[in-house]
């Protein structure tokens, strides 16, 4: 790139970052009605009581229980008719909390409906629900619902496995409150961590969230104040994230941050998806930074796995 073209590129990106709050407001106003009315787009059949039966050979059967005893269970399925399964061959029998009927088709529940890639939303884990999240092998976190409105999680990056390197650990308490069921939810919480083996390695963030829409289609706007080494940021980090269901097992995800630093605004935007595989979910996407003077496109891939357990 020649000297004559480089400054103009920096100016365009800088202007984009400085005007990001205005563009963000326009985007929110345009898409908010869609997410508030998202639940109306789904035709739910809530009167059908279904179970999902998983067997040791890896098969899954969805249907209604016809009869059962201590030895076997008989269910009626749409594609196979009535089938009888021995309980000794069954791994799990799950109720309607594993999914729902949409336009006559079974849609599996979102294994991580309370979080996007990393950012949480205004929905909370129910009492007894829990999940384990892993990102790129090294990032590990477990979260569980203590009540329907309070959850707590903890995580670490186990760098101690590499010659005793300094290891980040953290906890993530969170409260969530429904304002209008399946339409507006509020959440607040904190990430509080430290780096084992490092003096004054404390870090974290205090945040508040507003989520608009259902668990399958929603938009979340958040404010967070980062802190480290005994000091807290003067300006909040603005976060905007969205989730849209694309089918029985798929979601579109986006998670974006706008950070004020040194009189400029730095952005981090992302797009990708979530794929439900049995009871697990696979998250994938690309994160792209935006900053004044950054004239090279840098895309950072994201690959994560979520495994629910506990009350599901």
Descriptive account of the structure:
The structure is a single chain. With 312 residues, this protein is mainly beta. It has 2 domains: 6-42 and 110-310, monomeric porin ompg (Porin, Beta Barrel), CATH 2.40.160; 51-94, SH3 type barrels. The protein contains 2 helices and 21 strands. Strands 8, 9, 10, 11, 12, 13, 14, 15, 16, 17, 18, 19, 20 and 21 form a 14-stranded antiparallel beta sheet that branches. Strands 4-3-2-1-5 form a 5-stranded antiparallel beta sheet, with no helix packed on it. Strands 6-7 form a two-stranded antiparallel ribbon. The longest helix is centred in the first third of the chain and has 17 residues, at 20-36.
Topology, element by element:
Elements: H1 6-18, H2 20-36, E1 51-55, E2 60-68, E3 72-77, E4 81-86, E5 90-94, E6 99-102, E7 105-108, E8 129-135, E9 139-145, E10 150-156, E11 167-171, E12 174-180, E13 184-196, E14 203-213, E15 217-228, E16 231-232, E17 237-245, E18 250-261, E19 264-277, E20 280-290, E21 300-310
Antiparallel strand pairs: 1-2, 1-5, 2-3, 3-4, 6-7, 8-9, 8-21, 9-10, 10-11, 10-12, 11-13, 12-13, 13-14, 14-15, 15-16, 15-17, 17-18, 18-19, 19-20, 20-21
Transmembrane segments: 284-305
Keywords: Membrane, Transmembrane, Transmembrane helix
């Amino acid at each position: 790139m020649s000297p004559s073209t480089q400054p103009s590129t920096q100016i365009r990106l800088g202007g984009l970052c400085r005007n990001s709050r205005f563009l963000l407001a326009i985007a929110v106003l345009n898409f908010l009605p869609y997410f508030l009315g998202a639940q109306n787009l789904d035709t739910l059949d809530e009167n059908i009581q279904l179970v999902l039966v998983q067997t040791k050979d890896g098969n899954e059967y969805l249907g209604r229980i016809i009869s059962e005893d201590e030895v076997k269970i008989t269910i009626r399925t749409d594609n196979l008719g009535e089938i009888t399964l021995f309980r000794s061959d069954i791994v799990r029998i799950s109720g309607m909390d594993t999914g729902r009927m949409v336009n006559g088709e079974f849609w599996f529940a979102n294994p991580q409906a309370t979080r996007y890639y990393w950012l949480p939303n205004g929905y909370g884990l129910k009492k007894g629900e829990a999940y384990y999240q892993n990102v790129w092998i090294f990032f590990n976190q477990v979260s569980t619902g203590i009540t329907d409105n309070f959850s707590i999680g903890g995580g670490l990056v186990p760098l101690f496995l590499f010659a005793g390197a300094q290891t980040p650990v953290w906890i993530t308490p969170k409260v969530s409150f429904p304002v209008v069921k399946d339409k507006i939810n509020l959440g607040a919480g904190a990430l509080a961590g430290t780096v084992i083996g490092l003096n004054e390695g404390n870090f974290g963030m205090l945040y508040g969230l507003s989520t608009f829409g259902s668990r399958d289609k929603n938009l979340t706007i958040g404010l967070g104040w980062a802190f480290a080494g005994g000091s807290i940021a003067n300006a909040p980090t603005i976060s905007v994230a969205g989730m849209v269901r694309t089918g029985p097992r798929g979601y579109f995800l986006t998670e974006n941050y706008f950070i004020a630093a040194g009189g400029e605004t730095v952005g981090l935007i992302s797009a990708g998806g979530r794929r439900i595989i049995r009871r697990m979910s696979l998250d994938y996407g690309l994160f792209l930074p935006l900053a004044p003077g950054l004239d090279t496109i840098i895309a950072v891939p994201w690959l994560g796995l979520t495994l629910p357990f506990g009350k599901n």
